[in-house]
Design brief:
- By secondary structure, the protein is mainly α.
- The protein has one domain.
- It has four helices and no strands.
- It is extended, with a radius of gyration of 16 Å.
- The model has no long low-confidence stretch (mean pLDDT 78).
- This is Transposase.
């Protein structure tokens, strides 16, 4: 993955989490929310290739779904 693209995506995720944190009633809970989630291992920033390798056996194949 291109470094600039990865940095852009990370910034977008950071902004998304920060914007969400600003909507919380207790503003102190919203500050540094992303850092808290990372420290508690509740969120991971992975590109799609890393995600596919890490969770390839977790999701069923598309043909496994019954209509």
């Amino acid at each position: 993955m291109d470094i600039n693209r990865k940095e852009k995506q990370e910034k977008q995720v950071f902004q998304l989490i920060n914007n969400y944190g600003a909507t919380l009633n207790n503003k102190n809970h919203g500050k540094n929310l992303l850092n808290k989630l990372i420290l508690e291992n509740r969120i991971q920033l992975l590109n799609i290739d890393e995600f596919t390798l890490k969770y390839k056996n977790f999701y069923p194949k598309s043909g496994d779904y019954k209509q």
